[in-house]
Amino acid sequence: MPPVTQAVDPLHARQLELFDQLGTDTAVVAPLRARHQVLGAVTVGRSAGRAPLTSSDLAMVDDLVHRMGLGVDNARLHRETQHIAERLQRSL
Fold it and tell me: How far is Cα 7 from Cα 91, in angstroms, rounded to an integer?
């Protein structure tokens, strides 16, 4: 990991500080998306004592964030549907 002094912005500097505190040697930050909207990010790191992340690890992280995005989207759709059903029941 590069030193904090090489950070390009405050968020990057904070991430580098956290990686240093946790002893993280390699990391990947993947966007958490649902319906073409970025909801957040998932960070996966590997400590200095282990082998660096590989392309198969990246594929696993990609699959993980895809599934997490689907779960978040399904929960949002369920809440929306429940809210609509309650409004319809009240209007009757």
Answer: 55
